[in-house]
Amino acid sequence: MSFEILMNGVGDAFSTDHFGTNFLARKQDFVLAVDCPDSYRNALNANDFKHGDGALAVEHIDAMIITHLHGDHVNGLEMVAAYRRFAKGGRLKLYTSPEVAEVLWDRRLAVSLGTLYNGETFETMQLEDFLEMHVMAWDEEISIGPFTIAIRRTLHHIPAMAMRISDGQATLGYSCDTVFDPELIDWLQDSELVLHESTFGVAHTPLYKLLELPEPLREKMLVVHYPDEMIGAEIDGLTLASQGEIYAVGKSD
């Protein structure tokens, strides 16, 4: 295969039976994580993805992308950043949109990580103490390890980004959180594998709209970000992504 996708979670924001939707793109030993919901390390531990001679863990992640600031996509970042700094050393490389980068520290992480007690005094911390931040421009592709990433705004409550992840041979398309958007579908459809969300709410995509898509597109699509009510469902014409599964993107080398 060209590269692989490790489905670390497939649930929606209110799921209690699945971890929130997030995945890792892996090519050889390079690991790119996309989103970081609650209980992130627990999810990696439960899924037990193999990496090298052991299990994949937070310290093996080479870079992470945060798509938007809803909690089911970012709540785990605080502890992942702290764990990387204090338990493993070093900073996490983080990539995100200009809108997220502008407020991530002041409105999210600084509340819990902005002041730390060192045993004698209180220290004021900065984003740079925990994260190596990289801003992804909407109109430019960016290289992260062996991958080239293109991003696109979605129609959602807050700024969120769909993406195409390519290693130069094959491409993964990811809708992120979005209303059903035919223009976004057109942007994603040439990918070898497409992950598309479907859950309840006006800012999300109803399942019936995906079922109306052409069969060739549906055959290479996996549904993610779905509610617990859909777990185990057999849907004629669509496949639900399975938590803990590894999916190939592209053909074998």
Beta-strand residue percentage:
25-35%
The gross shape turns out to be globular
Largest sheet: 7 strands, mixed
Secondary structure class reads alpha/beta
Q: What is the domain tally?
A: 1
Q: What is the strand arrangement across the widest sheet?
A: 10-7-6-3-2-1-18
- Please give the radius of gyration in angstroms: 18 Å
Full CATH superfamily name: Ribonuclease Z/Hydroxyacylglutathione hydrolase-like
How many angstroms separate the termini?
Answer: 6 Å
Number of helices: 7
Please provide the count of β strands.
Answer: 18
Task: Assign the CATH class.
Answer: Alpha Beta
Low-confidence stretches: none
Mean pLDDT: 96
What is the name of the CATH architecture?
4-Layer Sandwich
What's the helical proportion of residues? 10-25%
The ordered H/E elements are EEEHEEEHHEHEEEEEEEHEHHEEE
Tell me what you see in this structure.
With 253 residues, the protein is α/β, with parallel strands linked by helices. It has helices spanning 40-47, 71-74, 77-88, 98-113, 182-188, 207-211, 215-219, and strands spanning 3-9, 22-27, 30-34, 50-51, 54-55, 63-66, 92-96, 115-117, 122-124, 131-135, 142-144, 147-153, 161-166, 171-174, 193-197, 221-224, 239-240, 246-249. It has one domain (3-242): Metallo-beta-lactamase, Chain A (4-Layer Sandwich), CATH 3.60.15. A seven-stranded mixed beta sheet has the order 10-7-6-3-2-1-18. It has a seven-stranded mixed beta sheet with strand order 11-12-13-14-15-16-17. Strands 4-5 form a two-stranded antiparallel ribbon. A hairpin with a 2-residue loop joins strand 2 and strand 3. The termini are close together. The mean pLDDT is 96.
